[in-house]
Amino acid sequence: MSSDAIVFLKEEHKQMRRVFREFEKNKEDAGRRGEIVRRMIELLTIHTYLENEIMYPEVRRLLPQVEDDVLESYEEHHVADVLCQELWSMDPADEHYPAKATVLVENVEHHMGEEEQEWFPKVRDGVGRKELRDMGQRMIDKRRDAPRQPTEPSALKKAADAIRA
Predict the structure, then answer these.
(1) Cα-Cα-Cα-Cα dihedral of 52, 58, 62, 68, to 10°?
(2) pLDDT of 61-120, one tens digit each?
(3) Predicted TM-score of the model (pTM)
(4) Which of 62, 76, 58 shows the shortest CA–CA distance to 125?
């Protein structure tokens, strides 16, 4: 796996899209959709944690001109965090469960599209290769210890920090 931060994050986006497609195929099966949504939440919890802890603060420091993009990304992550928290505590048979999961998927798809089409090109142009490799390696290293459930203390702290920001 490449340690370039953008390549790393795009690969994570691909993993999430695969899980989103699996959810779409199985959303009528309460048992199966519960398993898929748990996997989706795990991937999102890890991913948003890594971006919030490493990528966003570093890019914000190196490229002050993308401040608005970074702040918007933090808010989009906060919305995803709230939906993940709610879904985590729900029964997959709840009539609102598939709708809430669909809203999560739609919001994250929008966020990933903005990152890939608008934000990543700005970062690629403004941040050096060495810095991108360093950020990527830090994310790879930190991924092992990243929270996997939205109820873990480090995930809750991330969500609380977004409220105070």
Answers:
(1) 10
(2) 999 999 999 999 999 999 999 999 999 999 999 999 999 999 999 999 999 999 999 999
(3) 0.91
(4) 62
